[in-house]
Amino acid sequence: MKFFIDTANLAQIQEANELGILDGVTTNPSLMAKEGIKGHDAVMNHYKTICEIVDGDISAEVISTTFNEMIEEGKKLADIHPNIVVKVPMIKDGVKAIKWFTDNGIKTNCTLVFSAGQAILAAKAGATYVSPFIGRIDDANWDGVELIAQIAHIYSVQGFKTEILAASIRSALHIVKCAEAGADVCTCPLDSILGLLKHPLTDIGLAKFLEDAKKTLG
Ligand code: E4P
Description:
Helix content is 54%, strand content 17%. It is α/β, with parallel strands linked by helices. It has an 8-stranded parallel barrel with strand order 1-2-3-4-5-6-7-8, surrounded by 7 helices. Helix 4 packs across helix 5 (92-103). The site of erythose-4-phosphate has 11 residues, from helix 7.
């Protein structure tokens, strides 16, 4: 399973990258706004900087919602760097745009996916990645991980090549459950990635080993 970090914060991207286990980055307009990035040029430069930090797929989201506009916007995003993946919302024109990008060799991430039916459409259009938002599904009292398992089953039965990118991750446990359910990628906040490190028995065990090491060293 690949690990992406879900942020536009450069310090966090750098920290996750230095762990040596990072395969890519996802961003969205809300995450860009959170970092105070304002204006078209600033946004484009920010994507370029992220591409320079991480050698992996970097999702950059279109903010237009009609086919022609999404194509124009997506082409400009894809021109920033060969690792850019154009993130397109799961709407009717978005499906058409994903098909166009696929036919023209541009990678896509179909975002805002909340059902198996939407995931089937994304795969039919040839999306590189499909992003079910599992945390937001849990927030609405459905089971986000269950959706990952359902999509994984359908893609396996049908032979779809689209990679399942579990998004809207809220915890380290979500990452483990998504791995179990068959996600190809998890895009996570830094806290959730670092949460995987934690176990009290590791801390207790290490403290004991270090204490005993002092005895052997005299
Ligand atoms: C996916 O690519 C989105 O950026 C993200 O995972 C949304 O997560 P949220 O529900 O925490 O906003």
